[in-house]
Design brief:
The chain has 173 residues and is an alpha+beta fold. It has three helices and ten strands; from the N terminus they run αββαββαββββββ. The chain folds into two domains: 30 residues; 134 residues, Sulfite Oxidase, Chain A, domain 2. InterPro entries: OxRdtase_Mopterin-bd_dom (IPR000572), OxRdtase_Mopterin-bd_sf (IPR036374).
């Protein structure tokens, strides 16, 4: 009788242990990340830990009628370099037709010509921020694209989920 009870307890533990494993996997899978891709390279998945390990910069800027805030994040150029975008030398040829598409969780999208992010051409100061006034982003995050210095913040994307380098060139017919 005692052996039968131990077997029932053991069999009762198996579903419980499986449920714990599934819940643990679901928690890890729900950690916010930004998918970054560039043609010819394996995509990256940047989570908070990966972004924290990258060089950060700070800027004071304001959007719309908000007071200025101190924003902290990673330059978009640095993220694109790690994804394999050809920004390690001055752009030329087909690369000048490439563009970067930033997508938010609500499917809002903006684009930059890759040349805007080349320091020898446009040198736009776009950055993926994860902090505002020393705190993690609240309703705008966890990641937001900032473009300090633009006349209006139309390309300041909240809740960024994807950054893609797209080859915009076409082969001649």
């Amino acid at each position: 009788m005692r052996h039968g009870r131990q077997v029932r307890i053991f069999h009762g533990l198996i579903p419980f242990m499986l449920l714990c494993v599934v819940l643990a996997m679901d928690v890890r899978a729900s950690e916010p990340e930004v998918r970054v891709s560039a043609p010819g390279h394996a995509p990256l998945a940047l989570d908070a830990g990966a972004l924290a390990a990258m060089p950060h910069v700070s800027v004071t800027a304001a959007a719309h009628d908000e007071p200025p805030s101190e924003w902290r994040g990673v330059p978009l150029r640095e993220i694109l370099l790690r994804a394999g975008a050809p920004l390690d030398k001055p752009l030329h040829g087909r690369d000048l037709a490439s563009f970067v598409r930033i997508t938010a969780s609500d499917h809002y999208q903006v684009v930059f010509a890759l040349a805007e992010l080349d320091p020898t051409l446009g040198h736009a100061q776009a950055m993926l921020v994860d902090q505002r006034n020393g705190q993690p982003l609240a309703g705008d995050g966890p990641y937001r694209l900032l473009v300090p210095g633009e006349q209006r913040p139309a390309r300041w994307v909240r809740n960024v989920t994807a950054i893609e380098v797209v080859d915009g060139s076409r082969s001649p017919p």
